Amino acid sequence: MNRITLILKRPFIWLSRFRHRCGYGVHSPFAFNLITQVIYESTPYYKYKDLAVEQKKLALQKDKNWKYESKKVKRLLFRLVNYTQPDTIVDAGRLAASSLYLKAGKEGADYTSASELSELFLEAGVPVDFLYLHDYRHPEFVEEVFRICAARTTKKSIFVVEGIEYSPQMKTLWKRMQQDEKVGITFNLYDLGILFFDKTKIKQDYIVNF
After folding, report:
1. Cβ(183)–Cβ(151) under 8 Å?
2. Count of alpha carbons within 13 Å of 6, Cβ hemisphere only?
3. Which pLDDT tens digit goes with each residue over 26-72?
4. How far apart are CA 108 and CA 125, in angstroms?
5. For 153, which of 84, 100, 175, 197 could close a Cys bridge (C-beta 3.0–4.6 Å)?
6. Quick one: pLDDT at residue 46?
7. Confidence of residue 18 (pLDDT cuts 50, 70, 90)
8. What pLDDT does 4 receive?
9. How many CA atoms lie within 13 A of 140 on its CB side?
10. If one looks up domain 3-207 in CATH, what number appears?
11. Among residues of the chain, what percentage have pLDDT more than 90?
């Protein structure tokens, strides 16, 4: 799906998901807290301003992919990392400004980026605590990175997948990810999918109007 098509469809997407807003109808305390305190969090973190300045500085040195993600998505990535406090972060896909937000969410975390499979270097025995997987135009890349990283998860791991509703291939792949035996609670935000790997919580998929 190209950007213009997505912009034109956005009002209809929002309306179709209107009843899935603000945690309405969510009974799980964990899911309700994530939706209301992380996904819908509107607190103006002080780092947002610093990150915007840093992004603008670096944009002059980068290609057009550097700024393709929306501010809403980048800020959510920051909040998710800040919330989960991962020791390891894997950023798989086109290098973009979201890398700044991932690193800022937990300074000092072990950060690995890979725009191709050949660049995905993972230290033996080290789990993947946080994965941002964003190359929806290449579902085969997304699927292979998921396979590799899912084998390194723990109950604290969280994967964020971009573009889960952007194409038939990605919709199918998202369903397969949800059905993976290691995956627990999942959240469908249309633009993003969020997967948790804590199997002590009841497995359920939540649709969120993001």
Report:
1. no
2. 13
3. 668 898 899 999 999 988 888 999 999 999 999 888 888 888 889 99
4. 19
5. 197
6. 85
7. very low
8. 59
9. 2
10. 3.40.50.150
11. 73
Termini Cα distance of the chain:
18
Instruction: Return the amino acid letter for 179.
Output: Q
In SS3 terms, 33-57 reads as: HHHHHHHCCCCCCHHHHHHHHHHHH
Record the tokens describing residue 104, joined without a space.
Answer: 């800022």
Q: Which two tokens stand for residue 204?
A: 């359920």
Task: Report the C-alpha gap between 78 and 81 in whole angstroms.
Answer: 5
3-state SS, the chain, equals: CCHHHHHHHHHHHHHHCCCCCCCCCCCCHHHHHHHHHHHCCCCCCHHHHHHHHHHHHHHCCCCHHHHCCCHHHHHHHHHHHHHHCCCEEEEEECCCCHHHHHHHHCCCCEEEEECCHHHCCCCCCCCCCEEEEECCCCHHHHHHHHHHHHCCCCCCCEEEEECCCCCHHHHHHHHHHHHCCCCCCEEECCCEEEEECCCCCCCCEEECCC
pLDDT in tens, 143-177: 999 999 999 999 999 999 999 999 999 999 999 99
Token pair listed for 67: 């700024």
- Ranges of each domain in the chain: 3-207
